[in-house]
Design brief:
The complex is a heterodimer of chains A (204) and B (1055).
Chain A lengths: L35 H6 L10 H4 L5 H8 L7 H8 L22 E5 L10 E7 L9 H15 L4 E7 L7 H9 L1 H9 L1 H11 L4
Parallel strand pairs in A: 2-3
Antiparallel strand pairs in A: 1-2
Helix pairs in contact in A: 5-6, 5-8
Chain B lengths: L2 H8 L4 H16 L5 H12 L4 H17 L7 H13 L6 H9 L6 H14 L8 H17 L1 H7 L1 H11 L5 H17 L6 H9 L18 H12 L6 H11 L5 H17 L2 H20 L4 H18 L11 H16 L8 H12 L3 H21 L3 H22 L19 H13 L6 H16 L6 H17 L7 H16 L1 H14 L12 H11 L3 H20 L7 H15 L9 H20 L11 H17 L2 H9 L22 H5 L1 H10 L10 H13 L4 H18 L5 H11 L11 H16 L5 H12 L4 H15 L17 H24 L11 H13 L4 H4 L3 H12 L7 H18 L1 H6 L3 H12 L12 H14 L9 H8 L5 H14 L5 H17 L9
The chains are: A alpha+beta (204), B mainly alpha (1055).
Keywords (chain A): Chromosome partition
Organism (chain A): Aspergillus pseudoustus
Family (chain A): Belongs to the MIP18 family.
Amino acid sequence: MASEMQNSNPTILNTADLPTRLRPSVSSKSSTYGSEFFASTLPSLTEGSLDPISDYSQTPSESESDGELMEEPIDEQEIYDLISTINDPEHPISLGALAVVSLPDISIKPALPDVPESPLQTVTVLITPTITHCSLATVIGLGVRVRLEQSLPPRFRVDVQIKEGTHSTADEVNKQLADKERVAAALENGTLMGVIAKMLETCQ
Amino acid sequence: MSALQTFMLVVDHDKQEARQIAERIAQDVESKKTNLVEVVQSLGEYINDEDPLLRGKAVSYLTAVIKALPPKFLTRQQVQVLTTFFCDRIEDSGAVAGVETLQKLDRFTKDMAEEVAKALFQNFTTLQSRAQSQRFQVYQLLNELMSSHRAVLHDMGDTSLVGTVDIMTGEKDPRNLMLVFSILKVIMVEWNISNHVELLFDSVYNYFPITFRPPPNDPYGITAQDLKDRLQDCISASSLFAPHSIPALLDKLDSTSQNVKKDALNALIACINSYSPDTVSTYSITVWETIKFEILNAQEEFLSELSLQALHDIAKRLSEGVNQVSDQLPLAQYLRPITKECNEQLREPQQKQAKPAQEILKATSKASAPSFSLIVQVVVAPLLTLYQGADGITKQRALLETLTQLFESAIMVFGEWTSRTPAPFAENPLLEFKDQFSEIFGQALMGTVKEEVSFRISALKGFLRLSTLRDYFHDSEIGLFVQYLNEILLKEETVGRDDLKREAITALAEISKHHPRLIMDITFPAFVATLPDSDDGSDTGYMKTLEILAQISIEKAIFDTLVRRLLNKLSLLLQTEQAGSAAYPRAILLTIYYVMSQRKLEGDPGLEMYYDKIVVAMTRSAAITASGKAKNNILADSTVLDILSRLCNNIVRSLPRSTQDEVAKNIYTLFTSPDEFQPVPFSQSASEDHHRTMILSTYLLAGLPADVTLPHNMSELLPDMVARSVTKTEPAPQLAILRHIALLVNKFLPKTELSTATGLLDSLLPRTTAESRTSAETIKTIFWLSKSLILRLAPTTTKILTSLLSVLSCPDETTSTTAARGFAILLKDDDVLSPTNGANIRLLSKQRVFTTLTPLISANIREINTTHSSNNDAVSKQHIKPAHLTALSGILSTISPTLVMPELPTLLPLLLQSLDLQSEDSQAVRAATLQTLSVIIRESGVTVIEECGHVQSLVTRLLKTAEYSKKQVGVVNGPRLRVAALRCLFLLAQTPTGAGDAPAVAKAGKLSPLLPVRNQVLRSLKFVLDDPKRDVRKAAVDARGAWLRGVDEAPEEED
């Protein structure tokens, strides 16, 4: 890790303002009493099946089986959730809060547009370093790459790049991040892996 | 041989014997058979021996004799002679102990004390070459002198000071250091140390930082913290140390060790709090200049917190005795560079450094009223200017948050409206900005686009702080805020996750504590006005309103009004012919139930009214509704009855005894006359509507004390109720009747009449030989009856459990499976049969059930596994094994995991077999199993599984359960089950919570037991990452991450 901080005072976004997935509030449980609030504060009302014998057949499976049919494909928000909690190597602050990664800079496209039935997909993540001469951009890029390769199924190709115009040596960094062999070599480096492991520790 | 010679022979190996010899001689001395002079003379030939060992033993002999003498025996002269004798030979072992005995005597004088002290200081300059126990004796003696003859030592002045330092220099043993530090502290505090400041300081500071770590099975119980505390007391003992201590401690902040920095900061804080304010003032700015880096570039949160604490404590010390704020104060000089630095950092308040600056301001400003004033004077105006010129909402928001931090400090200094502490005399410097704040925060809250939720929340929080700050806002200003909140809650559309509304409700609830009047006058009418007279089912907006009303009705006055208003609404509803859906009256009852359950009802002056209006009147209405004589059917709805019953139950529990007796008479008549309503028990023609009133009867019964007189004879009532429960009725009244039976048997049935209940149970149990089917209703009755008996640990408990288990082997599949599910009833916590309702639940009942059933189930399953595989009738008995596993999961889901641990070796194979049930309807069983497994793994980690030798089989099964397969018909592994399995895998790779630091040491030499399956897990999880469900993928990512991180690969082998 660099001994001297490259950017000691970056701007920080509030965690509450970062993009999140809005889940439809689950109201099935409280439906009997029509109120989530009362149901949650008076636990006895939602104790679940009071009568294990009669309720048994419908406990988990019935409500789920129709939901099971509905697929939830991997989308940009999910990719964002995977990488926004990575910590910056310089600050104990997440890449999301530093706006190093942002939702509009993530895209998922079919890897082979000519073969529509192919399940292969490419995830592209553009990184915005906090300052244009940040020497840690490569490390951040590697961290994002490692996290995605660990967390995505094999049919996904990962492409991590520096966003155009945000870094003085963007081409060089991009070249390094795109070069499979150089990435593999970097990951053999114990110190570097240590830094990356520390960055990934905060991923929840 | 003389006594002395015998003593010297045995003293090394038999202390007991040696003591007895000394005691005998002491008795001789006492009875004048011999005298002390003779005893001393008898030492003659050994006392000048060249061998120090011999000399020591001889002196010890004398000491032992003196010790055995009664305390008043020796004359002053004798004490004097002996003291001189011991002092002369102080270096011989035994002498120190001798003096220690003497100095406890009343006849030990000051002069003698001085003689002893001198002897110690002169002769023990090479103390450190002696054994620990001898050094300990010397320190102990010094410590004793310090406590009983301190004046003597004090008068010796420098001699005792230097002497003590000389003696202890070089000491390393923690036990001795504990004594040394406490002796030195006395000298530092009470002696005139001005000539030897550096000597004294160095004598203790040499030990900083303490790096001592107690041995594994420490017999002395001294921790590093004990030593640190005593050392810290010494360092902070005298202001004169400041020129040495403060620079030295600040230097230590350059250390690379977090622990050293922590100790240095703690010591610094101790110094700040005990040195004189003048001294603190001298170093205040130096301290700030150094430790600000710990806050601005915080490495660890705890270091930053300690540093903030130090800054706060300095401000607090410098505020002592300050009445008038002025620029010339040391406090002002200290704060000047701080506010300057913070103001600079806050110029870009959205950036990273602003947060530590906010924290610094908060920590220093909350220290005292003068400190708060000085900071507000220079900080607030620039912040307001910045706010006016701010170009973005992010920046504005950061500024609002900075101000809110100051408001919180203000609350610490000036209190809230409800604070009982007296208000400080100083005027709140924020008053000057009152109108500006009101405008800025009001504008930010109400004049911003609705999408900027987090900005508006920041404004709301700031406004709330100002509203609770004592003597700040006028009622009308808080009223304005309350109106804003009303508007947000009543008029605004929901945006995003509704965080703003949630905060608004919290704010109203908070204000209702400080200003109940404002809530009553402004919020209450506005909300009640939106409640409809009746509900046709189209608009359920009233639910939100009722939720909010329930949450803000914390204060007694608001609570009373709310309950009255809602009861009026309810009685109107009950009078209308077209009452609409039951949801609305139910919601009203639910609201009353909620607010009442938040309060203590005993002794409430409104209790009588609640009894009349709710228990008597509503129960009566329900009974009349059941007879078909009411205007509408609201009170025939079982969910409405359920809430009403819970409400009545709460009230009945709090009633005075005489009223409870009245309730007891009306359990079944429900406060009606015979021509209005026919009670259920013994009625031949009770309709479904009638049976539904049993919900009320059951909750009323539950709320009564166990010794009330019930209206019916138990031996007649119980069979009648059982007969009703086994004939099919709708679920809610049937459950009520089952609970009714359970209550009667568990709480009201005297021990002598238990046979009534066991007799009924026996008559219901199916004969094992019979092939016939037992109805689900009968099985339920069986289990509820059993539950009520088992919880009170009736003498027949084991027999009952065995008969229940035998039902599982019934050849009829439906009977067996239904009974298996019934096991979950036995120990499940119940709202009616609960400790709150005075149910008779013995502490050991759960353990008893578990330890009785587990071995039986295990044995049965083993038998099934071995015999049935070869048997012809295997097909017809296939259901029996799953039934046993279901029963087990039912028990497991209702007991605490700590009970499970001792039975783990028996249990684990059963749990693994449950996971093998790969069918759709086994999901509940497997879910319960995974739940139990996850608790086991979280508490004790993989080691317990490894000890049973099941790591591989467990992991394989978990992976199989996590699998999603499109090909299968129906769902074998539902998403929730898959998540649960992945969660277990995740926990396996984590360090267990219950383990603490211990495994880290154990782990060092040992490979993780998960290593052999690591690759299998990582490979399989790679495919789970493609699960169609997001939650499953998330769990898979976490599990995979944990295995990648937590399970280390084998260390590289050297070739």
